Amino acid sequence: MTRPLLSVALTVTLTAVVAVAADPAVRLAERFDANNVYRVELRVSIAGKLTVPVAADKPPRAVALSGNSKLIYDERALPQEDAKTPAVVRAYRTVEFNRVIGDTEQKAGVREAVRRMVVLRSEGGKKAPFSPDGPLTFGEIDVVKNDLFAPTLVAGLLPTGEVKPGDKWAATAAAVSDLTDLDKIDDGGLTIEYVGTVTVDGRKHAKLTVGGTVKGVNEDGPNRQKLDGTAYFDLDAGRLSYLKLSGTHDMLGPDGKTTGVIEGSFVMERKASDKANTLSDDALKGLTLKPTDDNTLLLFDDPDLGVRFLYPRRWRVGVVQGNRFTLDEPGGGGILFSVTPPAKTPTAKAFQDEVKAFLAKQKAKVSPFADPKRVADKPAVDRFALDAELESGRARLEYAVVTTADGGVTVAARLPEKIADELKPDLDRILKGLAVTKRILEK
After folding, report:
1. pLDDT of amino acid 83
2. Same structural domain, 163 and 309
């Protein structure tokens, strides 16, 4: 996914600008604790072109890209028990995400039931949201995972001591990573300058400029980002209240040449919130606000396929083709799901015979087959397993047939021998909650 490049298009009316020479030294510091709840509004717009591969014997094709997003949420810092993993709890009020790549329009959102989320930031910069109210889908996580993380961003943009007009300092690497979504920064950085004080709507603010060029790598590959903008620190409230940035995002090929350019605009506004009822002490009482094996599960719910289940985050949905789809795991594990109409759902014995024939054709060395066993009745789940030596290495092969009146699902899992004991509980959890959600029709 191409990440929005930060930039801005918003005009702020300023009044009674104080002469820079008269401004005394100021300390710009914000305190994050559970007593403060903020209303945050983020707006992003992007436009540009991407170069995408077409075929091995054809030159890449330039594709237009445009999009905009708007997020509004209330946010409250959680008690920080581990300095390496700060966390906030949010209640999303507005979630809008629209993008057009070529002729393809994409939209995304977050279900109302799970708009209250806890967001943790690891020492390496990764942000991991989960909802204490229910499992999130991967798409919902994708919408919010690159959102800014105020405790890191704000602290990284502000100076460590008093500053006078004209003083400059470098943003921390963590703040730069948060703004640019770069996993690795190879070169460059952002510089902040204190310009002076201004009055906005009767409140005294410190005006800052932010700018620089950063080169690094993220999930889109190598890229270079040039940012330029302005920030305002509310001296009366003691918080960074406004940030606007304009920028250019150059995607780079293996040779360092530009393969695509995106220009964008970004605005962040923060103010005190007086309507965050879902983040009050009473509202949060009894909720588990720390990540567990249960509250971090992801939800797979595909209305077209007619299948729903929960799965651990180490797995990712892979290929979806027709009535088949896969889950893949970084260590080499994989699970293949095949959705079938009632009349074509095989018995466990028939499925086992099919597996035997396939492995024999592959000339795989396998352990003896045990008869399938019924492990659940509603829905009916039959399972069998064996050890095998394949071209790709030794593995535990697990199979299951889930049968319902509306249709069935056959499951074939490959668990590499070294991590089979780790992955089997994941498979057990998936099968335990797998449901067929509609009548599966023959095609």
Report:
1. 67
2. no
